[in-house]
Predict the structure.
Amino acid sequence: MKGLAADGGLFLPEEIPIVNDWTDWRDLSYAELAFKILSLYISTEEIPAADLKVIIDRSYSNFRAQDITPLVHLQDNLYLAELFHGPSYSFKDCALQFLGNLFDYFLVRKNEGKKGEDRYHLTVVGATSGDTGSAAIHGLRGKSDVSVFILHPKGRISPCQENQMTTVLDENIYNLAVEGTFDDCQNIVKSLFNDPDTNQTIRLGAVNSINWSRILAQIVYYFRSYFLLARTSSFNIGDKLKIVVPTGNFGNVLAGYLAAKMGLPVDKLVVATNENDILDRFWKTGLYEKKPVYGEAAEGGLEADGVKAHVEGCKETLSVAMDILVSSNFERLMWFLAKGTNALNDEESKKQAGQQILTWFQTLKDTGGFGPVPDDILRDGRRIFESDRVSDQQTLETIKAYYKQVGYILDPHSAVGVAAAKRSIDRTSSHMPYISMATAHPAKFSQAVKLALKDEHGFEFEKSVLPPELDRLAQMEKRVITVENSWETVREIIKRQVSKDRRTKSSN
């Protein structure tokens, strides 16, 4: 349930299992495949197999697509894995539906036979610039013994994202609109987790992308996409492919890396960034540097799509969910690369890799960057990773081009991935199949889509893009608490509401 370890580091499994019989999974359903993969990481002593199966089945029962993450042939050797068919229309549902049910399972087990104040009550606190909040809320709404507090920057997320969160009226859900930036929201959450008084009073849980369970659940759709490709083309099981991932915080593409380590035949993982290109610059130079921008140099994007929600110092772009300065999950990858390039025994190599990570990321904190990393580490990483940077103008051109050519409407994040995929295909003249990850429904970023397609004959956003479920949100009742930019104020609100929730639960 925790995001960070006690020493401030990130959790990792003891080992990544290498699966020799993964080809036997080809005909499994999504839920069956998830059970096979998650069982490799989750001990039956922790969660019995029958219980894990129930958790998984429940997690994917409310997706709109039968295949959960269907594969669409876009053009030539380029395919799209549509990851946005969950409740919040974002790829984050693939992990957060599972995480919500996992929390619920542990709480039910922990509270068996307990009553009143003796019951264990979890308080989930998270900061969002849009998608994580709505996915977390839909994963945890209505759960017993858990209160959910999601902080978003007031007026700085898209109307669609705000409506998805604030129209959820379940008693355990609290939306807090902070008078500040997304960075302010994140700082409030960090302060709460570091505050002794808060931790003595309430038990905190995390849903952000550094939670290992989220990465684990995302491994599944890499295998699933591979098997779906084999069903729909001349592609054969055992053949290699390239996978393109629009990337901000690195959690999604890290799951692809772990799938490859488990045995999935991935030729390359293409890291597609927007103009906040710290990851692209790293793969090209070996230097990991923030390079923040301010003033006119930072301006861009569309405010109505949530552009002002991001961390200060980011370039404002159309693909707002990827507007980051530092990718928090990149630390996990660097540990694997550092560990893999030394000749020490396993325990010593783990220890040395940890020490190297500590040095690098302390330097990043102190100076804004680190590197260049040793040549052998960079060379090892480039065996599986390549990267590209896509500008806003190129994003709009990609949305427009694929609408005109094949009638498919991309959201700006997915367009970044497709643009990078097309460049990689042209650069290498490759006939190898490419799967690009489509991470959000285009209706969630309406202004960018409208900007790209406003001059296209016959295009009407409401008819072509907007699902009725999202259209209805604007007319629904909303509940939100506006708060000042103060972690102490937020703390008191949380303590008061959690106390109320516990009393209500005790009286029922």
Q: What stands out?
A: The mean pLDDT is 91.
